Amino acid sequence: MIKTNREWLPILSVQGKVSNPIFRTSYRVGRDGQPRVLTGTGGIVYNAKIGDNCMHWVADHLEAGVSIKHEKSDENMAFNHLACVGNLATIMSGEAKGSQGFVTGKHGGIEHVLAYFKEETLAKMSIDDTVMIKAVGQGMRIDGFEDVVCQNLDPDLFEKMGISIVGGVLEVPVAYEIPAVLMGSGLGSATAHSGDYDITTGDRKSYESLNLKDMRFGDIVLLLDSDNSYGREYVQGAVSVGVVVHGNSTIMGHGPGITSLISCKTSKIKGRICKDANIATYLL
User: Fold this and answer.
1) How many of the other CB atoms lie within 10 Å of CB of 213?
2) Measured on CA atoms in the order 215, 219, 223, 226, is the torsion positive or negative?
């Protein structure tokens, strides 16, 4: 068993409300130059969840499940930094009060925390329902791998991901291995401890050769030559692991978003392709 410092990680509450969808402009102009009116970020999405395909929706940056945000910016920054993928989420108000789900990712720019709840729970939820998250995971370290940074990752989920040590390297089951050249919007961010960055999908040859058409919400992916230790940048030999948190986009430089989970500036991480490498497999 891989040992971590989980017994010393604080567990605390952070809280937000179900966020209404917003439009900043009437149209989104795609990479083909065409303006479109599309479903985007926010709200309660009833028919898309982790484990479902994220590429073919008539939408842009679709956030599966429930989008949550704190109405005050500094509190929302703490909410987005401290909530981790896999954390328990409990509804604290409204008709669905007491129902539980879990965090599935974080979306930068809009600064949403995303969560999964069962269909019967979604049917009872409303915009502005309060959701409390039992935040734990930031600061987790792996014994013997001091140069590996874990972020945005609940310790319980880490232990369910089937990670093993092979030849002194962390071997992680992943659904995809993505070359750094495809990483777009969000590259250069000052922190990878919140938000996400996008796999660009404008290059048809890469899209087809990597079989991105089958990518799912919740897929665990390996990012090659990508350092997410603190911010996000291209570094030869660096390796990062992340989770798909939102859907595809028609906009140039955008695509399915990846929230970082594990990163190393050197090749102390490798992937093992596994079609079941999805947080739905581990948490549902």
Assistant:
1) 12
2) positive
CA proximity to 149, closest of 77, 241, 282: 241
Q: Which pairing describes strands 112-116 and 100-107: parallel, antiparallel, or unpaired?
A: antiparallel
Fold matches, 6-135 and 148-283: no
Is the separation of the CB atoms in 59 and 67 below 8 Å? no
Q: Which amino acid is at 57?
A: W
The structural domains of the chain, with segments of one domain joined by +, span 6-135, 148-283
Q: Would the pTM count as exceeding 0.90?
A: yes
107 close to 114: Cβ distance less than 8 angstroms = yes
CATH code of 148-283, in short, is 2.102.30.10
Q: Are 27 and 4 in contact (CB under 8 A)?
A: no
If 0-12 CB within 10 Å is exposed, 13-18 middle and 19+ buried, where does residue 190 land? exposed
Both tokens of 131, joined, read 């959701």
Task: Give per-residue pLDDT as tens, 135-186.
Answer: 999 999 999 999 999 999 999 999 999 999 999 999 999 999 999 999 999 9
The mean pLDDT value of the chain amounts to 97
Q: Provide the 10 A C-beta neighbour count for residue 245.
A: 32
**Across-strand partners of 227?**
233
What CATH architecture is 6-135?
Beta Barrel (2.40)
Backbone angles phi, psi at 48, to 5 degrees: -140, 130
pLDDT tens for residues 102-135? Answer: 999 999 999 999 999 999 999 999 999 999 999 9
The half-sphere exposure of 25 on its side-chain side, counting CA atoms within 13 A, is 5
